[in-house]
Amino acid sequence: MADIRACIADNIARVRERIAIAADKSDRKPEDIKLVCVSKNFPPDMLNLALECGVACLGENRVQEFLEKHAQVCPNEWHLIGHLQTNKVKNVIGKVDMIQSVDSVHLLNEINRHSEAAGVTTKVLFQVNTSGEESKFGVSPNEINVLIERIQALKHVKACGIMTIAPLCVDKIATRLHFVNTQRLYIDMQQNKYDNIDMEYLSMGMSGDFEDAILAGSNMVRIGSSIFGSRN
């Protein structure tokens, strides 16, 4: 276990160094970039080692896996970053600090309903499919106004920014263009100053592309394999 801890510590240090370099190139400080450590398929013991090494925020993709880990791992923040079915909303409200994958009015309504029943306000990000890939969840940039309009009438959900996933391709130019287009949407939403929307986070970038994402304006990156190694 000591060897695993040392490996995780080294990986975290390398990731933070790469974040710092990318932040500097984009005229920001390393602390301006929030690291979400993605826990998908990794056991609680490894997650707790990451917390010992200074990780503060964990992100989980699947509700069932999150619930299994929730009682065993206690980070400062838990984020749900994977697709959330409306019938599972009740299982995570009050347990997660942020839901990063809101992509429909129906899902917004369910989050608000269960949050009201629990007496909490749930922070969310709007997931945007800027690439237009049919295999990805998220609203198109042209459809995001529907979410913006709806959330302004809700009292127990607060939007804190947008999230996106880059297309699966080896073409770095296409990936960078995807990030730039998402950043432009983020800036437009910031400038409009909508009620009940605080554009604090632009969540984009994972292990294979987080430096490009930071250079394009991301201030929240979701990294798993570069910290824990390859998944089973």
Q: What can you see in these coordinates?
A:
The structure is a single chain. With 232 residues, the chain is an alpha/beta fold. It has one domain (2-227): Alanine racemase (TIM Barrel, Alpha-Beta Barrel), CATH 3.20.20.10. It has 9 helices and 8 strands. The protein has helices at 2-25, 44-52, 63-70, 89-92, 105-118, 144-151, 172-192, 210-215, 225-228; strands at 34-38, 57-60, 77-80, 98-102, 122-127, 157-163, 197-203, 220-223. An 8-stranded parallel beta sheet has the order 7-6-5-4-3-2-1-8. The model has no long low-confidence stretch (mean pLDDT 94).
Give me some keywords for this one:
232 residues, alpha/beta, TIM Barrel, globular
Give the averaged pLDDT, no decimals: 94
Walk across the major sheet and give the strand order.
7-6-5-4-3-2-1-8
Radius of gyration: 17 Å
Task: Compute the number of helices.
Answer: 9
How would you name the CATH homologous superfamily?
Alanine racemase
CATH class: Alpha Beta
User: What percentage of amino acids are in beta strands?
Assistant: 15-25%
Distance between the termini: 18 Å
Q: What structural class do you assign from the helix and strand content?
A: alpha/beta
Helix share, percent: 40-55%
Number of strands: 8
The figure for the number of domains is 1
What is the overall shape?
globular
Biggest sheet overview: 8 strands, parallel
H and E order: HEHEHEHEHEHEHEHEH
Under CATH, the topology can be stated as: TIM Barrel
* Residue runs with pLDDT of under 50 for 5 or more positions: none
* CATH A-level architecture: Alpha-Beta Barrel
